[in-house]
Specification:
The chain has about 140 residues and is mainly α. It has seven helices and two strands; from the N terminus they run αααααββαα. The chain has a two-stranded antiparallel ribbon with strand order 1-2. The radius of gyration is 19 Å and the shape is elongated. The termini are far apart.
């Protein structure tokens, strides 16, 4: 997932999250060390290099501010807000260079969290189906 690839569907799904305490996903992301891992992995990369990487949903949504913000890139997790920033995207105001904050409270990060949960449940369902289906077919044939 490229830095600028933030699906509108992901943002819509993240509004479902609004009824859940925002600290739930933030705590999980901080404990997973997402920001520190991202910072170390891309520590010496330029912005052009980061744009060519296939970032995970978490990296793109939680560790990099939205492109609409037009922040000045300093390093992987240090972005400078322009002085005259008048943002239409609320995620721009939520961005913080603190590795325990970054954009963890952003809608894009919440959407990444939901995307991850959704894909994990989907894959678990497929695996369960592949394991259970032969057993059910065997039982059906025996009886």
């Amino acid at each position: 997932m490229a830095v600028g690839d933030r699906s509108p569907g992901g943002r819509t799904r993240s509004t479902v999250w609004s009824g859940t305490p925002s600290g739930c996903n933030t705590k999980a992301i901080v404990e997973a060390n997402v920001g520190n891992k991202f910072s170390k992995e891309y520590e010496f990369d330029t912005l052009d290099v980061i744009h060519t990487k296939m970032l995970t949903h978490f990296e793109a949504g939680c560790c990099v501010p939205p492109e609409d913000c037009s922040f000045n890139y300093t390093s992987a997790t240090i972005w400078i807000k322009p002085e005259n920033g008048n943002y239409t995207d609320v995620d721009c105001n939520r961005w913080d260079n603190d590795p325990n904050t970054l954009c963890y409270g952003c809608q894009t990060c919440k959407a990444a969290f939901l995307q991850d949960v959704t894909s994990n449940y989907f894959m678990s369902g497929i695996i369960l189906l592949c394991v259970a289906a032969p057993k059910f077919l065997f039982l059906a044939c025996v009886t």
